[in-house]
Amino acid sequence: MRSYKLQPVEEEKLRRICEAANLAPSAGNLQAYHVYVFQEKSKREALAEAARGQSFIEQAPVCLVFCTDPSRSAETYGARGRELYSVQDATIAGSFAMLAAVDLGLSTVWIGDFDEEKVREIVGEKAGRPVAMFSLGYAAEEPQPSGRRAIEDLFTGDFPQTD
């Protein structure tokens, strides 16, 4: 969704989205990520600029930024935890938050095209690698479904065949 109403997101709904992210599976249950919640217009404007001018980020009343916390994974899993598991943890948490948002009647879009250093400056120096961010709010229009690959094109091996 790239078009949002001015209607704010209720605190209870935002809390439930955060709780869903908190329940996401993670490597060793270490939750090697941090989520930054931005409702302030000036911060959303800065994030939109860091995302190469994607103005819908500032239009939405909330922007969530998912960053790694590589040191949490590295303590247990070494380099693989630092370089991979923390990214996976942040990504899974983002997916859970996104599913919860849609379940609560909100709209969102995954944003991966951004300048990582600029986003880190906005969220703070202690932030790990920004993996994804997404805008969050009430849709101003009905999104059209996007095309998808055939299931048979995605899955191999002992994939069940249809008759």
Tell me what the structure shows.
This protein is an alpha+beta fold and 163 residues long. It has one domain: 3-Layer(aba) Sandwich (NADH Oxidase). Helix content is 44%, strand content 16%. The chain is built from six helices and four strands. The protein has helices spanning 11-22, 41-50, 56-59, 70-103, 116-123, 151-154; strands spanning 33-38, 62-68, 107-111, 130-137. Strands 1-2-4-3 form a four-stranded antiparallel beta sheet, with helices on both faces. Helix 1 (11-22) packs across helix 4 (70-103) and helix 2 packs antiparallel against helix 5. It starts with 10 loop residues before the first helix and ends in a 9-residue tail after the last helix.
- By CATH's scheme, which homologous superfamily applies? NADH Oxidase
Fraction of residues in helix? 40-55%
Please provide the count of β strands.
Answer: 4
How would you characterize the largest beta sheet?
4 strands, antiparallel
In total, the number of domains comes to 1
**Mean pLDDT score:** 94
* CATH architectural type: 3-Layer(aba) Sandwich
Stretches with pLDDT under 50, minimum 5 residues? none
Indicate the overall shape: globular
CATH level-1 class: Alpha Beta
Beta content: 15-25%
Q: Measured on Cα atoms, how large is the radius of gyration?
A: 17 Å
Task: Work out the helix count.
Answer: 6
